[in-house]
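Dear Dr. H.,

I hope your travels went smoothly. While you were away I took the liberty of generating a structure for the chain from your last submission, since the lab meeting agenda had it listed for discussion. I wanted you to have the full record in hand beforehand rather than looking at slides cold. The sequence, exactly as received, is reproduced here:
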Amino acid sequence: MNSFRNWILLFILSTLFSSCKQNILESNKKLENRIYYQIASQSKILDLSSLIDIKWDNLLILAPYTNLKKDEAKLGIDLGSVQSTLIESREDICVIAFLLNKKVIAIVEYPRNKGDFADNELELIKKNEATFEILNSLQKTLDSKHVVVFSKK
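The corresponding predicted structure, in token form, is as follows:
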């Protein structure tokens, strides 16, 4: 009887864990690489609308140390699926969140040493306006390369 209770408890806990995990998104490495290749190609423009092959209507750039609860309230969207990125306590990435009908459907944890989106304002950016200039800043990386900055056009 005791093993039966343990089995039931294990089943309930695993069901709860798997249902909680369904709302967590992993970073889209394919898109991260596409952004990086756009920089490497010496392009001056990054058009995110042409790089991602899923249906989306807005994107949101979350800078380091973003307060997710505050931004959720300001924008009227749920950012719970972004919490796994730990953006609230990280400075090494920006999160690019792709939305469809105000729901986050894909994310990219973009390393700031490959290109920095951090200076862009917090706003929902429409797909047809998701164009950024690729600029070299005066800052340099540890290997003396200029830091690439993405600035919304």
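Two observations you may find useful: The beta strands are 45-47, 58-62, 93-100, 103-111, 125-126, 131-140, 146-152. The first strand starts at residue 45 and ends at 47.

With kind regards,
E. W.
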